[in-house]
């Protein structure tokens, strides 16, 4: 019963198999192999964008930082949510890779940015004023740190504001699959058709061993990317082992199937827990995360039973479900919580 | 017959098996798992150094750049061979990670630095002169770009000079296993007992999918390493998949067994080709690389037969052998070369 | 009637004379001259600190950025007021010079940080958590962007919190003279005796042509400073021309005499304007800046009469007085405002 | 008799006077003053280039580093002479400001680069090869570290090669005036008409207190310059004091008149010393520096008489003359050397 993060889960069988297959024969290094070429095609097909440029890397932090560095000069500002991973949880990776850009954290309910907040921030920016870092990038997190996600229309509205002010749009898609699976929309509608310039298409959390693809929807934005990837140490010599993971992930809807299973498990948990006395679902479930306020006794009882999860804030806990979630495990957790709730009430 | 690089080979069965085993159960992320702890122990045992600090990363460029950044301030100089990978082939990764250190390329036969050249360079340095970048690190490549390697005594002599001038010593060990397998020495004698402060212990070229360990023999040098790894994007969430590779590699002499096989293949090639008319072995074989000057007709004939290798310089070619080299393949290549040589002579 | 900034004023006669004197004879370059040595002594005397290390630079941005880079690693965080110059008005200079540190803007009335806000922010920081940039520096602005200033006791209380959390303390003293002149305290009591580690001792705004001294009260903190100054381009070959300005400034209380005159002018303005109908002094005057809310008609009338000042926010204007302020000019401005007020009332 | 450097001299009277004049009235800060606008006009006229963009800064290191950062990406290489100031004497300023570019030192007699050496270096560069930093800039030093200088034709030939390979051309003109005064050519013919993209037009060594202008001959290259200047700390609030120096320098041929006097003094020294027994002029005098090999007895005798100069290499000394050189001082030095030579011969 480990709900600490989707990072605790391992790799999906189809992805492991692709890795084993890739190992069968020698292959050119540094991405000059057939699998990396095939991956480019797979991703272009998946996103319905024949000119898109993709670069595999191994971590989400690398994907975000390299993408942002391609979109933002050292004197640029990156507008992001105040809880966003790029601002809070990457120990300054965007600052390092961009050469010192500034992240501007913006507030917003449920980890989401609103058009009003973004417009206000941009209205305060002084373009061309040499004393101030200059507006350069809007960074959206899909799904958000609160387990919610943007509809294509919401993304498009935010991108429209960004574009009016000359900003590029970056999307941290560490849980992109979960968001798309939730809305059931086409990935192209949620990204470039809505105005996103670069997507970090996450796979690690959703069934890969460690693989993410940076997608540039405008080839010109990708011109620096190869050099930035190499000099930051993220160009794999045996690239095919990244490409194999991502190619399997992108094919046959695997990414969506894995995400749907994780999302379903989150809903199962939310449905099973929300009715407990004293429980309160904090955010709507729009991906594979459940934020729920529980009585302390229940929290402690679950922990005592070796259930692992994150104490988010006070008595709000975060439960993250994975691509390999099993109904039986969810139900065991739910039953245990119910049992604790009954026990708790009786003892009161 | 692919001798382009040891990067073209895949992963060794024992390493793949370790990866599959690591996938069996969920595990804490970001290195808080049992495998990563076990790896630390394995490496401490292997290097006979109970306080050593190890950090797994996925690429050699990352290992080198992060290690150098921990040893060298932005205003420092890194003395290295003029052909060294850190200077020539990393697109400025050390410059990026250190925040702008300067690499000072030094000449030396066979990719090796000599005490005289190093002493001369350090004698010219002006310590404390604020206009000049300051001597900070000696970087050695083991084995060198020319397929030669340093004996423990040679390393110790170079380190002694470095230490007298207050420098730290970094060793790029992308092919460390091949060098150690060649000399048959203990890894600790070739590193910290000789004065090396940080070793990038390579596994990728020698049978891993993508895994290297940065080893700091002085724990104080490692204090920044965790932050530098994270902010450069090299902290894996599913770290156990790096640790599994490295742990299998470090155990039961796997690293040495793989390297010995690659080295033996290089010797087999060198022995089989050196006697060809017009052939000349350029460097002694002290690892898994053969540099040999061959008649152009032979080179072209081999290439026409789909043998892959690197044209190093004029008619000098580089042949790199791998952990999974097969005698039959070596012999096929040698026989073909012999056949071409006979044909060539007849036609002259 | 130019109250745009204290930057619009020129250089004080004594400082110009020192510059002319310094020009009489040739002198060693890069700070090896007698004037620079004398300046070091003057500053040590002034701050009653015989081991203090001082480095002249030409701009406040340089002073702040170099000082911060000496105190903060690339993965560090710098806590500062959300209106502080280092965060808002230096186009990312701290980010550039530190190699990517993160500034954490904190709220606070009148541009001042409070112990509560600082304590809360530090309580939220997770020391040693590799995903987060690490608390490294508290940066105080003296006087603040709102023209207020910290008493020695307030500084000491903030420094005490910072020290308990292992932070270094930087003070941006672009208007340090004005703050000290206001409180009439000893400069050492307002700095190192209160816990400040590095002070950017500003002179440019207060009568120099362009000169600031970075003061390190702990010599160990200054070890990197010479290299950081040089490689950022801030080591003057004809250093004596910076030192001459600063030495004159530090001697015979010139810095205080100039600041007192500017402060007195600010008080004269505040006193003369605060009683106008519809006027409201926004902040207490504790340096050489007046923030006052005025009826729009008066603002427009003053501007029409070629009075120059900054419209801060809505109908709040900022009036900055200089070291060479003349009572007659203040009175002319006050009289004009009074005239406009009477006219305004009559016309309503 | 101080020939250590042209940095030891002070400021020229006309430049000091301009500074005093600039101090008469308050003026807008950060370059929005009339003097800075006038300077832009003066420089455009001087270089016969109506679209040229100029930015005053205070030091040569700043000028070079900011200019290079505008021309070179972090993964770029800057080709320069192995003795060049940017490579040897700036403690890594170009590396810092560019974000980690690599300087490639090239050999060449008399501090000058030749077309052959440049062509060879560029032929070895692998454009688009992601493992190597990419050719980006040619940096020329005018006059060179050996006191020689490039003719317009030599500059044009080097620039032509650079342009064929897509490089930008930077000229470090710390002693540009001395070179132009030597050849008597038009400054535009020695720069943009020959293919130079950015010139650091030095004034500090030639009679300013501390002022250099970065000149961009292609306005597009200057787009980043304002932000780079600000965030590196080189935007002066009281900019008019830099502009005043530079404007006086650029007007009425002052820069050439000062340089001619320094050059003439160098020739007087060279002529007066070259005939001494055992003396050998090492390089032709093409600016304001004399490199001469002298008998050790003479060197020691001159030093004993309080003459100051730099021992360059063994018994080669460097004598640098200044804008305020006086014939009487030159002659005193020459006579002393002659006296020492006669004494030396008699005693042998």
Q: Please, what is the oligomeric state?
A: homotetramer
The Rg value of chain A, from CA coordinates, equals 21 Å
In terms of DSSP E residues, the strand content of chain A is: 15-25%
Which chains have the largest interface? A-B, 53 and 53 residues
Low-pLDDT segments, ≥5 res of chain A: none
Structural class of chain A: alpha/beta
Q: How much helix, percentage-wise, in residues of chain A?
A: 40-55%
Distance between the termini of chain A: 27 Å
Query: So what's the overall shape of chain A?
Result: globular
State the order of secondary-structure elements of chain A, H for helix, E for strand: HHEHEHHEHEHEHEEHHHEEHEEH
The profile of the biggest β sheet of chain A is: 7 strands, mixed
Q: Whole-number average pLDDT of chain A?
A: 97
Q: What's the total number of strands of chain A?
A: 11
Report strand order across the widest sheet of chain A. Answer: 1-7-6-5-4-2-3
- The tally of helices of chain A reads 13
Could you walk me through the main structural features you see in this protein, from its secondary elements to its overall organization?
Four copies of one chain form a homotetramer. By secondary structure, chain A is of the alpha/beta class. Chain A is 42% helix and 16% strand. The first copy, chain A, has 13 helices and eleven strands. In chain A, strands 1-7-6-5-4-2-3 form a seven-stranded mixed beta sheet, sandwiched between helices. In chain A, a hairpin with a 7-residue loop joins strand 8 and strand 9. The longest helix of chain A is centred in the last third of the chain and has 21 residues. The mean pLDDT of chain A is 97. Chains in contact: A-B, A-C, A-D, B-C, B-D, C-D. Chains A and B meet through helix 1, helix 3, helix 5 and helix 9 of A and helix 1, helix 3, helix 5 and helix 9 of B.
């Amino acid at each position: 019963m480990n709900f600490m993060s989707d990072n605790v889960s391992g790799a999906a069988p189809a992805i492991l198999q692709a890795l084993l297959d890739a190992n069968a024969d020698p292959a050119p290094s540094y991405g000059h192999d057939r699998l990396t070429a095939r991956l480019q095609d797979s991703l272009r097909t998946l996103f319905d964008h024949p000119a898109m440029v993709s670069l595999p890397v191994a971590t989400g932090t690398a994907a975000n930082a390299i993408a942002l560095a391609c979109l933002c000069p050292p004197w640029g500002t990156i507008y992001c949510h105040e809880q966003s991973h790029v601002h809070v949880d990457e120990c300054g990776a965007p600052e390092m890779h961009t050469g010192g850009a500034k992240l501007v954290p913006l507030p917003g309910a449920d980890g989401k940015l609103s058009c009003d907040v973004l417009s206000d921030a941009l209205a305060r920016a002084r373009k061309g004023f040499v004393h101030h870092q200059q507006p350069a990038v809007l960074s959206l997190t899909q799904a958000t740190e609160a387990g919610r996600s943007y509809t294509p229309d919401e993304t498009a509205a935010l991108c429209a504001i960004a574009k009016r002010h000359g900003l590029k749009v970056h999307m941290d898609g560490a849980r992109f699959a979960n968001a798309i699976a939730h809305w059931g929309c086409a990935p192209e509608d949620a990204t470039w058709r809505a105005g996103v310039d670069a997507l970090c298409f996450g796979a690690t959390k959703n069934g890969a061993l460690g693989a993410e693809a940076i997608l540039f929807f405008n080839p010109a934005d990708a011109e620096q990317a190869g050099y930035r990837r190499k000099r930051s140490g993220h160009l794999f010599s045996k690239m095919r082992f990244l490409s194999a993971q991502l190619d399997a992930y992108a094919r046959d809807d695997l990414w969506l199937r894995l995400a749907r299973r994780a999302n379903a498990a989150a809903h199962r948990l939310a449905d099973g827990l929300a009715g407990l006395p004293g429980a309160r679902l904090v955010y709507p479930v729009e991906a594979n995360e459940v934020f729920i306020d529980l009585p302390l006794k229940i929290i402690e009882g679950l922990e005592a039973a070796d259930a692992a999860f994150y104490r988010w804030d006070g008595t709000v806990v975060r439960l993250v479900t994975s691509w390999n979630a099993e109904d039986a495990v969810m139900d065991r957790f739910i039953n245990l919580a119910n049992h604790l709730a009954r026990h708790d009430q009786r003892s009161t």
